[in-house]
Amino acid sequence: MPFTLATWNINSVRLRAELVARLLREEGPDILCLQECKSPVEKIPAEMFANLGYRHMVARGEKGYNGVAILSRLPIEEAGALDLAGLGHARHIAGRLENGVTIHNFYVPAGGDVPDREVNVKFGQKLDYLTEMRDFFRDSRPEKAILVGDLNIAPREDDVWSHKQLLKIVSHTPVEVDHLGGVMEAGGWCDVTRADIPEGQLYSWWSYRARDWDEADKGRRLDHVWASGDIKAAGHSSRILRAARGWDKPSDHAPVFATFDL
After folding, report:
1. Cα–Cα distance between 228 and 137 in angstroms, integer?
2. Total count of domains within the chain
3. Whether the model pTM is above 0.90
């Protein structure tokens, strides 16, 4: 059964409900994973999405911060939610499709502005979160699984507009990249997007601070689609919908897509 999946940091699902609806109407992914919903679950506009054919949802939410949700045209049941690093944040939800595929939707902490845990608590929390992600997947090695989300790290040199200039900027520092690599290795994950698009600059986030974001193109690839090793060959047709970053009152992230033949 082939299905198309998209992941998108929406930066408030209620504020940008019309953008979510536009994506669902125009692109029609079978599954849409959202991060930074900034809403209690009961206030997510689920009825609006259900009217567009997305009648199934699993989610974790909190008022004003964080929050993750999986909207689906396919039946999906909740398969757990992790509270990593003891933060008490709504940063993970897992859902299981009828074909047995488990989808993990993560929103990794951004980590603040200073890449030093001694002076920046948020950076330490980010590293601890990634460490616990690694340990979880090492102890429960995933099978028939997909991991998506805003992982808040651009790991490759061509995942940022300037590797040299961003080496000391949170999201591209060597320690963060090493921690993310540890998560990937522990779970035997494959980066589906880069398996499909192995060469060239590739971004999914552009700062709100840059009004000329499109022309300057100083982006980072913070949003990811991974597959467990047993199904990595099933993923294809990866793309990033850059145009969505230019929609009216947009998120600063663009949706990332992949199709799986399973």
Report:
1. 11
2. 1
3. yes
